């Protein structure tokens, strides 16, 4: 495979060179900005591939990062790596299985290119060649159409927002998909805040293309859509730090150090998964919202005073399919007040009922999320498989030894499903299609 690298450059004076082996041409993706119902204007945008998927090499063609390890010659330390390495453009369709047409974007799963086999992808919506499109979600709704029919157990076609820097950090910045962060404080990022994450780098045992460095890349995350054909959830995660934050040690909240709830970010989030919340016939193949067919997904961020300046009070979900508007399912779990939306009260009750740590509240809850959303967030679209726990947290029973316990059953997939080697070999043609993105005031986009 091509070498993978992701780079976070946030104004510390670091700047990677740009290679000349492959030109960078961003696929177009239009979306609509609405001012009122029936009054929407088309916006010309484009998408850019995350730098994590790109080839990184020296002034010739020698890899700076190969497989899941750094070159000890080219990257013995952060500053030397930055001086030696160049990042390449992307062949979006040929190498990565990414295609767009008008307002539609399709992400393929396994793509066999001329020189490599690529697995999944992550892209961002651009405003222009140098800046990501920022969305200020409070007192607004975000709408899109999605087709998850080709995603089996173990895959995740995700659409979400993260508090990345608008320009992606130092050069080459957003133009090359720099600056990713999320609430899991991922350690597999090759560059964070402008420095190569080579310190203490260890290849992952379960992923031949990934490793983990000393540092993690943290920021607040709003998961609008995480789904395959069997299960779906939407989930806010809040961090106590503003913007991208390079963590180390305890503040990363690493699972392997038993410090998950000691870090700066809420990794669990406060999720609304209809199956987990007691309605197993609402979303899925042939169900009320039929995942065999495309659907419109509406997510509303209402405020206490119905103004942009108000504090976030509710996150609501509406579906539209076959011309029919379908309100989100109600909760059906003893101990949780019947509701079909995410509120602070809902989060508090689910944590108690499911026996989960209320890290969402501890890290700031709705008040913290409200402040975070004021600065604007970057739209992320991705397709991935899970080398940690096989996506069981989304579509199966997790933990696997807790079947029948409140909150443990999250989807109908078997606890033996989702192993990446199985998913990649058995479902290489899997894909997710996103289209018709709209953004505007409450009840203006559908």
CATH superfamily: Glycoside hydrolase, family 7, domain
CATH topology name: 1,4-Beta-D-Glucan Cellobiohydrolase I, Chain A
**Which structural class matches the secondary elements?**
mainly beta
Radius of gyration (CA) equals 21 Å
Overall number of structural domains:
1
| Average pLDDT over all residues | 94
- Roughly how much helix do the residues carry, as a percent range? 10-25%
- Kindly estimate the percentage of residues that lie in beta strands according to DSSP: 25-35%
Distance between the termini: 42 Å
Give the strand tally: 33
Give start-end ranges of low-pLDDT stretches: 1-13
Shape: globular
Biggest β-sheet description: 10 strands, mixed
Region (Disordered): 400-430
Organism: uncultured symbiotic protist of Hodotermopsis sjoestedti
Signal peptide: 1-17
EC number: 3.2.1.91
Describe the model:
With 446 residues, this protein is mainly beta. The protein has a single domain, classed as Distorted Sandwich (1,4-Beta-D-Glucan Cellobiohydrolase I, Chain A). 11% of the residues lie in helices and 33% in strands. It has 7 helices and 33 strands. The strands form 9 sheets. Strands 2, 3, 9, 10, 16, 28, 29, 30, 31 and 33 form a 10-stranded mixed sheet that branches. Strands 4, 13, 14, 15, 17, 23, 24 and 32 form an 8-stranded antiparallel sheet that branches. It has a 3-stranded mixed sheet with strand order 1-8-5, with helices on one face. Mean pLDDT is 94; it is low at 1-13.
Q: What keyword list fits this structure?
A:
single chain, 446 residues, mainly beta, 1,4-Beta-D-Glucan Cellobiohydrolase I, Chain A, 10-stranded mixed sheet, 8-stranded antiparallel sheet, 11% helix, globular, Glyco_hydro_7, cellulose degradation
């Amino acid at each position: 495979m091509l070498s993978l690298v992701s780079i976070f450059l946030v104004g510390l004076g670091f700047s990677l060179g740009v290679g000349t082996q492959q030109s960078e041409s961003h696929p177009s993706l239009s979306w609509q900005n609405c001012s009122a119902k029936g009054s929407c204007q088309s916006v010309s945008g484009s998408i850019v591939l995350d730098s994590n998927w790109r080839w990184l090499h020296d002034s010739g063609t020698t890899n700076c990062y190969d497989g899941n390890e750094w070159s000890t010659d080219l990257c013995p330390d952060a500053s030397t790596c930055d001086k030696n390495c160049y990042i390449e453009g992307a062949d979006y369709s040929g190498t990565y299985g990414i295609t767009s047409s008008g307002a539609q974007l399709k992400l393929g799963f396994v793509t066999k290119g001329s020189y490599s086999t690529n697995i999944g992808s992550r892209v961002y919506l651009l405003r222009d060649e140098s800046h990501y499109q920022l969305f200020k979600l409070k007192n607004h709704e975000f709408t899109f159409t999605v087709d998850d029919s080709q995603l089996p157990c173990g895959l995740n076609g995700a659409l979400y927002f993260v508090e990345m820097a608008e320009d992606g950090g130092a050069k080459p910045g957003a133009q090359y998909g720099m600056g990713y962060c999320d609430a899991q404080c991922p350690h597999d990022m090759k560059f964070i805040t402008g420095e190569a994450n080579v310190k203490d780098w260890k290849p992952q045992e379960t992923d031949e293309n990934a490793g983990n460095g000393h540092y993690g890349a943290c920021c607040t995350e709003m998961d609008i859509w995480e789904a395959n054909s069997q299960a779906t959830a939407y989930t806010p995660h809040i961090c106590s730090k503003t913007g991208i934050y390079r963590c180390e040690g305890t503040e990363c909240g690493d699972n392997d150090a038993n410090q998950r709830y000691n870090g700066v970010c809420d990794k669990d989030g406060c999720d609304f998964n209809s199956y987990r919340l007691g309605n197993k016939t609402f979303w899925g193949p042939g169900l009320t919202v039929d995942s065999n067919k495309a659907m419109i997904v509406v997510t509303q961020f209402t405020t206490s005073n119905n103004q942009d300046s108000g504090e976030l009070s509710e996150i609501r979900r509406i579906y539209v399919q076959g011309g029919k508007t379908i309100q989100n399912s109600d909760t059906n779990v003893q101990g949780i007040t019947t509701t079909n939306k995410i509120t602070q009260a809902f989060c508090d009750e689910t944590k108690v009922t499911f026996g989960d740590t209320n890290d969402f509240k501890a890290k700031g809850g709705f008040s913290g999320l409200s402040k975070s959303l004021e600065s604007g967030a970057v739209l992320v679209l991705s397709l991935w498989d899970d080398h940690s726990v096989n996506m069981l947290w989304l579509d199966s029973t997790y933990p696997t030894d807790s079947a029948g316990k409140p909150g443990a059953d999250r989807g109908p997939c078997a606890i033996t499903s989702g192993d990446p080697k199985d998913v990649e070999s058995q479902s290489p043609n899997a894909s997710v299609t996103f289209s018709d993105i709209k953004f505007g005031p409450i009840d203006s986009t559908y």
